Amino acid sequence: MHYHLGRYSFLEWLMVIILMFGMSYCHSIQRIKEYGLTCFHTGGINCKKATLAKQSFFCRTPPRSLPSDVLQNMKVSTVMKCSGKRWCSLYINVNGTAILNEHVRGVEICVMTISSSQTQCESVRFSHKSKNLDGHKVDIQLNSFEVSIGQQVYVTMKTLPNFCYVELEKYHSVEGCDNKDVENNILSCLAGKLDYTINEEKKSITVQVSDIIEGFDYNVRLCWKRFICKDIGAHALIKADNSVRSVNLNYAEILPCLCIEGWSAIPDSRRVRICPFKHGGGKLNGPENFIRSESHLCTWLKCCDV
Ligand SMILES: *[C@@H]1O[C@H](CO)[C@@H](O)[C@H](O)[C@H]1NC(C)=O
């Protein structure tokens, strides 16, 4: 079988698609040392952040002499600022170009986080002495918008004063922990690694944790996974200053849906979850371990809903 899509064969297209897919998960994120505003221009233009950073809701009719391309080339990307190994934060970087014009005093750039509808805005004002600079380009770079992993953002760039229909807009997805660079450098992606041993007599699971964020408490719990992982009251906290990185958790039954979860006690932290019994696995083979007498707290069918 041989498909031909234009000049390229099916296999060549497939390779291109796989390559593009792979790149989106592996591409590294630009590092910044300082965040803020940078303007690049050739003439004597002053560019500074305006103090009033309030989003302008109303727009004015643009004057006839205003060129429609007064704002150009908006590019949105994610950048990272680090203060030590793994201590990095993510910011939205917005690059854009404004054409100087007698009507335009500056630009306003806003980043809206779609999940929370929260908007961060910054405005930039130009001041220039000479009218001769009209028509000159100013390249603007603003990267002080802090964001979290995996957020969807909507970025707008408007003129000051805000003229209708001249704004630029773009959607952008902030990389998540599936991006290697983010996974290795953003603390909340570091979920930890769980290992376990079972003591059938004591009906307890000893969970050893490793690869966790230093300096923070760490939670471990047992849960029953159906749609969500339902808490079953077995929970322990490993204190940050505790050198013993293991806990004992008691269980009532080893069920196929029994899972072990771990996460750092920091906001938005990622959870690691292992469900070692889902194929009846581990040392406890065979269905006799799952289906026990009716008198037990929970039967396999009732708890796991399978
Ligand atoms: C934004 O502009 C800066 C300075 O010119 C440049 O270093 C950076 O690569 C640009 N970023 C994007 C996404 O184009």
Automatic annotation (TrEMBL):
The keyword Membrane applies. The keyword DNA-binding does not apply. Keywords: Cell membrane, Membrane, Signal, Transmembrane, Transmembrane helix. One of its GO terms (molecular function) is interleukin-17 receptor activity. InterPro entries: IL-17_rcpt-like, IL-17_rcpt_C/E_N, IL17RA/B_FnIII-like_1_sf. GO terms for cellular component: plasma membrane. Its main location: membrane. It is a single-pass type I membrane protein. Residues 128-279 form the Interleukin-17 receptor C/E N-terminal domain. Pfam families: IL17_R_N (PF15037). The chain crosses the membrane at residues 6-26. It is found in: Cell membrane. This is Interleukin-17 receptor E-like.
